[in-house]
Amino acid sequence: MDDPLMLARVQFALTAGTHFLFVALTLGLATLVALTQTRATLSGSAVAERMTRFWGQLYVINYAVGIVTGLVMEFQFGLNWSGMSRVVGEVIGAPLAMETVVAFFVESTFLGLWIFGWDRLNRWVHLGLIWVVAATAYFSAYFILVANGFLQRPVGFTMVDGQARLTDLGALLTNPTALLAFGHVVFGGLLTAGFFMAAVSGYHLFRRTAEADLFRRSMRTGLVAVVVSVMPVAAFGGMQYAYIQPTKHPGAQESAAQVAQFEARFGPGDYTPPGLATAGEVLMEVAWSLMFFLAFAMLVKLPFGRWLERGRVFHVLMMAALPLPYVAMISGWVFREVGRQPWMVYGVLKTEDALSDVGAGAVAVSFTVFTVLFAALVVVNVWLLARFARRGPEAVRLGAPGAPEPERPALTPTF
């Protein structure tokens, strides 16, 4: 506990990784809720509308708690990583500011209108609101990945007096490392939401609840999302290897050449990432392989709607498979981020030079506070999701009409 650099790195890993788990479900579930509401609006289906309310309530819970984790995580940039802001703040400041505007203002505003607009707004206006929410969620993810893509593969800048100056905004916004990661995250979110929807539906179908029709349709929606996204998520992940840092694979010839260049520019040092990066890569591939085989089984069984309702073994399998997309995402995130070490900005700024001038004691205090806070938020989110998912559509309060106001007695004039 006496190494401020390691404490700051672990703290950011815990907070950013935890926040990312919220984001993945938020992205995918927002899309599935929007598609379900579109179906309800076009067809007038009462079941589709109840599906929208049920899954929409779970989405709102995850979004609300996830916003808190995002706000807390933002404090770390100024708290522990002022060196990064000082050197590359001009470059990554713009996309981070856009993410804040889109996520914390535009997205939250339209989500609030959607939540409180049930039966108050025109149905087409209300449908448009959820699509704006989904679109802004993707814009938010894009701008975050633009900033992260610069850390992975810095482009569109020049160094002036030790500070990075943005010279090509187009190169920054179209950085392949950011664009491919964005596609990867988009389909990863759909994959996560698909497994989440299938797991919750499997729970209710396994228990033979009275809402068999609603959860059979929800199960089909979740399985379709899994089948549609399982291959694109791998394709976008595979394309990123064309832009991978050579040092992520220490034994390769390109890695040795890159290390030699770093030693010539920055002096002797260890420029290869820790083994945790390789472990993350392997675990990500194993988790994806399991999801692929499950998706293949889903594709075979999808045409048989009654089987989706009666296949109790399949229901248990879907519930057990819920952690798989989360394992794949967090291990892939470890591979991406840990594999960049020892650089904060690859080949430009070392992580140790990005650290704020803080002592181990101060970092230890913030590490403890942040860890306890994030653990509490995760527990609260899981408890709320499980509670409302288990209670089913009958307990949904999203869009429910309020209690009628009591009649007031007529005022009798007195003389």
TrEMBL record:
* Swiss-Prot/TrEMBL keywords: Cell membrane, Electron transport, Heme, Iron, Membrane, Metal-binding, Transmembrane, Transmembrane helix, Transport
- Gene Ontology CC annotations of this record: cytochrome complex; plasma membrane
| Source species, domain of life | Bacteria
**Topology term for the membrane:** Multi-pass membrane protein
What is one GO biological process annotated to this record?
Answer: aerobic electron transport chain
Per the record, the major location class is membrane
Signal peptide positions are none
Q: Where, per UniProt, does this protein localize?
A: Cell membrane
Q: Name one GO molecular function term.
A: heme binding
The answer to whether the entry has keyword S-adenosyl-L-methionine is no
Q: Name one Pfam family in it.
A: Cyt_bd_oxida_I
Entry's transmembrane regions: 12-35, 56-79, 91-116, 128-151, 178-200, 221-244, 286-304, 316-335, 358-384
The protein's matches in PANTHER family, at most eight in alphabetical order, are given as: CYTOCHROME BD UBIQUINOL OXIDASE SUBUNIT 1, CYTOCHROME D UBIQUINOL OXIDASE
Family, per entry: Belongs to the cytochrome ubiquinol oxidase subunit 1 family.
**UniProt-recorded name of the protein:** Cytochrome ubiquinol oxidase subunit I
Say which species the protein is native to: Actinomadura rubrobrunea
Lineage runs: Bacteria, Bacillati, Actinomycetota, Actinomycetes, Streptosporangiales
Supply the gene name: cydA
